[in-house]
Automatic annotation (TrEMBL):
Keywords: Plant defense. This is NB-ARC domain-containing protein. SUPFAM superfamilies: L domain-like (SSF52058). One of its GO terms (biological process) is defense response. It comes from Acer yangbiense. Signal peptide: none annotated.
Amino acid sequence: MSLPEGMKQKNVHLERLEINGNHSLSFVTRGQLPSSLKQLELIFCEKLQYVFADAEETCTSSSSSYSENINDINTFLERLSVLYCPSLTCLSTRDQLPATLRYLDIQNCSKITTLSRGQLPDLLQDLRIDNCQKVESITERFHNSMLLETILIHNCANFESIPEGIHKLSRLREIRISECPSLVCFPEEGLPNTNLRLFDISDCENLKALPRGMQTLDYLSIWICPSIKSFPEECFHTKLTRLSIGNLDMYEQLNQWVLPKLTSLTRLDIGEWPDVESFEIGMMLPTSLTHLFIAHFPKLKYLSSDGFQNLTSLVFLSIHNCPNLISFPKIGLPSSLMELRISECPTLQKQCRRDKGREWSKIAHIPCVLIDLKFIYDLEEEE
C-alpha cells in the first residue's frame, strides 16, 4: 500500500510530513509527494519496504500515473528520516535519492544492507546510520563533488567498509563510528586532510589500524579498539586540543611519546586500563591542560607522584570508578583547581571528609568539591 491518491494535488504548500505508526504503508510512489515538501519522516511503519518506488514495480493500473523521473520528484526535499521500519530493504528501487537531500537519518531498520548502490546526492551534508544490524556499507564510492560534512555510524554489526573516495570529501568535518565489530580497516587513501576536526571511534574490536590524514583534528577519541597495534604519528599532532582515549594496547606509547608532544591539549579523558596501578602518566601531561577526566582504572592505587604540579592551568579534575585509589599525591593538587569530582571511589571518598579525612587538607582549597555528585558540605549535614 502506498499513500492516498491526491496527496500531491491537495497539499501543494506542505513542507514537513511525518508518517508515524502506519502499519499498511509499504512504499511511497515516485511523484506522489508534493514538490513543496522539504522534510519527510517515516516512523514505526512496520511494512515499509522502500521509500521511493516506481509505480510499475509495485502495482499496476491507476497508480501507474504517479510514475515520474527521479529528477522531477521531491525537488526540494532536504531531510529524510526513516526510523523503526523493520521491513525496509532499500531507500530507492532505482538506487537514486532526491538530488536536493541534505540530511539522511536511518535508525533501527533491521533489513536494509546499503543506502545506495549508486551515488549519494552531491548536496548531502549530514549522514547518520544507527542500529541497522545488516547494513554492510554506505555506498560503493564517495565522489569528490559531495558536500558531506558529518558521518555517524553506530551499532551496525555487519558494517565492514568505508567507501572509497572518502579522502576526496574536502568539506568533511566529523566522523563518529561506534559498535561496528565487522569494521577492519579504512581505505588506503586515508581521510581528507583539509577540514576534518573530529574523529571518534569506539567499540570496533576488529579494527586493525587508524587511517591516515588526521593532522587537522581538534578532537580525537579512541576507545575499546583492542586490535589496533600501531598509530599514525600524525593523529597525535601538536594542535590537538582534546583527546579521549582508553582500553588500547598503547599505554606506554601514550606516556613516552604521545602526551609530551600535545602542547595545545586542553582536555584529556583517559581510562579503562585494567592493569595500571600508578598514574605516573600525569608527569607527562602538557601544561596547557585545563580539564582532566580519569575513569575506570580498577587497580589504580596512586596518582602522579608530582601531584600534577606542572598543570598550572588545570581547573577541573574528575576521578570516576577507581575503587582502589587510596590517596592524592603527598604534595597535593594544583592551586589552580576550581572543581574536583569524585565518584565510585569508596576508599578515597572516606578520606575526603571535611576536617576528618586524611586527605581533606589536600583538597580544602578547592572551591567546589563533589562526591558522588553531592557537594561535600551537604554530605556533612547528612551525617
